[in-house]
Design goal:
- By secondary structure, this protein is α/β, with parallel strands linked by helices.
- The chain has nine helices and twelve strands.
- It has one domain: Rossmann fold (3-Layer(aba) Sandwich), CATH 3.40.50.
- 29% of the residues lie in helices and 28% in strands.
- The strands form three sheets. A six-stranded mixed β-sheet has the order 6-7-8-3-9-10, with helices on both faces. Strands 2-1-4-5 form a four-stranded antiparallel β-sheet, with helices on one face.
- The longest helix has 16 residues.
- The protein is globular.
- The structure holds adenosine-5'-diphosphate and magnesium ion.
- Adenosine-5'-diphosphate binds next to strand 2 and helix 1.
- This is Iron complex transport system ATP-binding protein.
- InterPro entries: AAA+_ATPase (IPR003593), ABC_transporter-like_ATP-bd (IPR003439), P-loop_NTPase (IPR027417).
- Keywords: ATP-binding, Nucleotide-binding.
């Protein structure tokens, strides 16, 4: 059995719609995955299962040597760092940056009366420094630029020292400079052997950070291809996934796709 993720024939059905269709997926220690697919492909749904936030309608989901449905998810979730737009929308606007990160230790988004340990504050501070946010500790989350918010969210996802880090479209809404900064930092994290196993969801091939080892392509809830990144991110597979005839180039670990005319 795979130690990190082992999905077997996982389906998610809502009414007459199949969001995920018999997905098999194995993620092992040390791997860095990117999940690519067009809007509506089921990427967020897949990540919610991996984050132990959603149960499959059928099939089994093994997460960190536990099986969803047979484990207390409140014990499992702190072992998984998760960042998504939906989660960010729950962060109170006037929360300061340090609190946005430190509250992750308690699985909440607003600081109230929890007794925080100084060690937790030190860890949050160190993570924010790592992500270039040290000078902005006391700013409110609402006052940050989109790029700064994304970095705070990743620092928050890392707060519990997770074994698995899940990032749903961390590059969404960033300008070119912000995207390049994020890709660079994610590439650095990918190269850190002490970093958790990572899964990054995006629909932009340009956001794939160098150093990522594996890729999964999703379309209409089904897996088009999955495996070592250089075998998966080909013109043929990506054209099928996005429904567009694409030329794909790779240069020093960065990928680009352009429509064939
Ligand atoms: N509760 C729901 N009921 C019906 N359809 C849903 C529900 N949640 C999501 N969907 C649909 O499922 C599909 C997959 O959604 P999602 O996982 O968010 O895709 P992605 O993240 O790849 O854009 C989309 O077409 C979406 O509209
Ligand atoms: Mg999504």
């Amino acid at each position: 059995m795979s130690d990190v993720l082992e999905l077997t024939s996982v389906s998610v059905v809502r009414g007459s719609k199949t969001l995920l269709d018999k997905v098999d997926w194995q993620v092992n220690d040390g791997e860095r995955w990117v999940v690519l697919g067009p809007n509506g492909a089921g990427k967020t749904t897949l990540l919610q299962i991996a984050a132990a936030r959603l149960h499959p309608s059928s099939g089994t989901a093994g997460i960190l040597d536990e099986t969803l449905g047979r484990v207390d998810v409140f014990e499992l979730r702190p072992r998984i760092g998760f960042s998504s737009a939906a989660l960010a929308s729950h962060i109170p606007e006037h929360e300061n940056v340090l609190n946005v990160v430190v509250t992750a230790a308690y699985g909440v988004t607003g600081r109230w009366q929890e007794g925080y340990e100084r060690d937790d504050e030190r860890r949050a501070f160190a993570l924010l420094n790592d992500w270039g946010m040290g000078p902005l500790l006391n700013r409110t989350f609402a006052s940050l630029s989109e790029g700064e918010r994304k970095r705070v969210q990743i620092a928050r996802a890392l707060m519990t020292d997770p074994e698995l880090l899940l990032l749903d479209e961390p590059g969404a809404g960033l300008d070119l400079g912000g995207r390049e900064e994020l890709v660079h930092r994610l590439a650095e994290l990918a190269g850190d052997e002490d970093a958790p196993v990572m899964v990054l969801v995006t629909h932009h091939l340009e956001e794939v950070p160098p150093g990522f080892t594996h890729a999964m392509l999703l379309r209409d809830g089904g897996v088009v291809a999955a495996g070592p990144i250089e075998e998966v991110l080909t013109a043929e597979h990506l054209s099928t996934t996005f429904g567009v005839d694409l030329d794909v180039t790779e240069n020093a670990g960065r990928y680009t796709a352009t429509a064939r005319r």
